[in-house]
Task: structure prediction
Amino acid sequence: MHGSRVRGVRRQVPQEQRSRGGGQEGALRLHARRGQRPRSRHPTGLREATTPVKHTRGARRGAGRPQPRRRSRGPDRALILRAARLLLQGIGETGLRRDMRSTPRRMADAWSTEIVSGYRADPGRILARTIPASDHDMVVVRDIPFTAVCVHHLLPFFGTAHVAYVPGDRLVGLSKITRAVDALARRLQLQERLTRQVVEALARALRPLGAACTMEAEHLCMTIRGARKKGTRVVTAAYTGAFRSSPALRAEFLRLAGGRSGKGARG
Result:
């Protein structure tokens, strides 16, 4: 008796599975005829999701917000090239003449590789290679030519820089100072900020007893537009350490930077 019941149950199980399978297949055929998508057997439908839950939450929080673009190191030549073409169109040169067909490319090359090439340079790395100092006498590098671009009108300003420092424990090669000035200048700049950045770069790299910089420059935004005062020059100065605390040391630097004629640096 019991054996027959067991055998009967065993016989019924495959039959029920077949009926369930048949029911599911029938449902699939029914949905296909109606043009509907069958429901997922998973209660939450997570098996059909292609995006992880954690990522989805972050997407909800940032929905509608523009994602910040990762800034690349150095100027983007392709973007500058597009901007150059737009600038010429804005000026009115919509159909470039034969002598201007290469102008956008030349502009992109000049801006990306020369005019603002300082964004690719690190003054700290330029000044990193030092040697031991044997004394604490002032070192002056004068008449360093530089060219920068004013942040206000994107017009050049250019002139000379005079840099000095009183060594602590380390000295740096003289050419490294000129290269550091050039790296900081070939950017979108303010002369006041540029002067300060030069002494700060020296202070960080060398830890001197003091650093000083004066700059004298002509700004095209003052000479070819606006006031149009040709020959006007701007003088800026920045000091740290001993140059700030000692008027005598500061006066000696200004005298050496000014040269025999007494012109040039003023503070």
